[in-house]
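Quick board copy: two proteins, each given as sequence then tokens.
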Amino acid sequence: MASERDLFANFERMRRDIDELFGDVFERSGFSPARGFLPPVDVYYKGDPPSAVVQADLAGIDIAEVGLEIRGRQLLIAGERRAQQSEGRLYQQIEIPHGFFRRVVELGADVLAEQASATYDDGILTVVIPLRPDDDPVRQVPIRSQDRP
């Protein structure tokens, strides 16, 4: 019969194997159970000049503790929603997530990161990122033959 220590060692080994197998999937999606929660986002594209717009629901979060970063075609939003002081409270239900979050939003086009802007109003973070213009959408490629120089 396996000792209790062996049983937990097997669980730990299995957890590491699962992390190794699925860890990169969670990282690419921006979610990791150890990180807390994922704020919901809307992503859309609009007009003149063409821009990507990302809106994130960050109600109850001190915007000074939120960081934004653009890496290629990804917008990273990270921060923390602190739990309210709970002294003297007896909770019946807790549904508002708190803790650290890191959200990776995949953008569907190349962007001009240096021209991005962000505003925070009524708990909604709005990030506007101009799209990189497609200056040369079609390029003809000549084909050389081995027979002809």
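And the next:
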Amino acid sequence: MIKSKEWDWKKVNGKQEEYWKEPSIESFYLINRWKKDNKKDFLDLGCGLGRHTILFAKNGFNTRAFDLSENALKRAKEYAKKEQVDVEFKLGDMLNLPYDNESIDCILCRNVISHTDTEGMRQIVKELYRVLRHDGEVYLTLGSKETWGFKQTDWPLVDPNTRVRMDEGPEKGIPHFYADYDLIEELFKNFNIETIYQLEDFYKNENEELSSSKHYHVLIKKGK
């Protein structure tokens, strides 16, 4: 199993910092869904600067925030204090979550869970299952094998599903696990898979050159 490595959040400032404080579109859907299901205990797994941590705390969830980066947690704590919300912050590795069995109702893990290799991914899935209550749900994203990153032959291949990102930026040196539909079904065979869809995000760089990336968005439930 490859060693876990956190984002270099010290490189994220200015406009980038503001971007990483904006909640994702699907987080608003999840708040509505999980409120309807009377879910209360929420975990922001890989919280970064706290964009979803703060949002869920403001919407009445008992919020826990977890990350591997001390720098990210420090800044997320400052953000929570500024916004006057109560959050339980913990530092650690997704391979070994510091939460009791069946103690969490709902988990959001966006663009984080895939920062490992295949062996690590299987361990993280076990941890998700362990900490979730019956009928608890996880919304997560996974890099697609159709996306550009998996096709970078100059990035070291760790195993058939994992490359180490080597371009400059906060993710340099971090492993990235990539999936396809069959692999997702195999990984989450002990869960009920509620939805799977693949999105392609388009964006332009500083030279106005168009690029895109593809991710699977997966909603799973512990119900078997």
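Board note added afterward: The mean pLDDT is 95.
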